[in-house]
Design goal:
The chain is mainly α. The chain folds into two domains: about 140 residues, no CATH class; about 50 residues, no CATH class. Helix content is about 80%, strand content about 0%. The chain contains eight helices and no strands. Helix 7 runs antiparallel to helix 8.
């Protein structure tokens, strides 16, 4: 039963989200929490791991959740579920590319989808940010904790480096080193 659940859940995630892994985060979060497959903290931790490893975010998430809840077969079912809608869509679009490219309906759909994707990415940003900076909900005591300011500093540094066009691998590596050092020094 878990294998079918994994496949259908990630099929839904793959079918109803556009814009890539970040746009999928709100639906992934909703589904994995609803099923009890990951907590908010585990989800944020795995997003960090997923960003540090090769491969698309959604596929890494599906594989991780699948293997954790259903073993190797669970990983295969979840991963296949999240990939299948995109695979079928690409096959159809490639078959009829010229017709789709000139379609006013497709142009209109893309015009409407672009801002929605940005909104979904923004929602994921806020949701993950709340979990990182306010893991126990919003409370003023967090502003007196050192780990809050270390996290905020790493976030600002990451944003500055990204805007300066520093390679994402360097940003991830620098952030990981800072986190390791802070973890040892501050016992976070």
């Amino acid at each position: 039963m878990i294998l079918i659940d994994l496949f259908l859940t990630f099929l839904k995630i793959g079918a109803f989200t556009f814009g890539g892994g970040y746009a999928m985060l709100p639906l992934i979060q909703s589904e994995v929490e609803r099923h009890g497959w990951l907590t908010k903290t585990e989800l944020v931790d795995f997003i960090a791991v997923s960003e540090s490893t090769p491969g698309p975010l959604a596929i890494n998430m599906a594989t991780f959740v699948g293997i954790r809840t259903g073993g190797i077969l669970g990983a295969v079912c979840a991963t296949f579920g999240v990939v299948l809608p995109s695979l079928l869509t690409i096959l159809i679009v490639s078959k009829f590319y010229e017709k789709f490219r000139e379609s006013r309906v497709v142009d209109g759909a893309m015009f409407g989808l672009r801002p929605a994707v940005i909104g979904l990415i923004g929602a994921a940003f806020l949701s993950v940010g709340m979990t990182v900076f306010f893991p126990n909900g919003f409370e003023t005591a967090v502003f007196s904790r050192t780990d809050f300011f270390v996290s905020l500093g790493v976030f600002v540094l990451g944003a500055v480096l990204a805007f300066k066009k520093i390679h994402p691998i360097a940003v991830i590596g620098i952030s990981a080193v800072i986190g390791i050092i802070a973890g040892y020094i501050l016992d976070i």
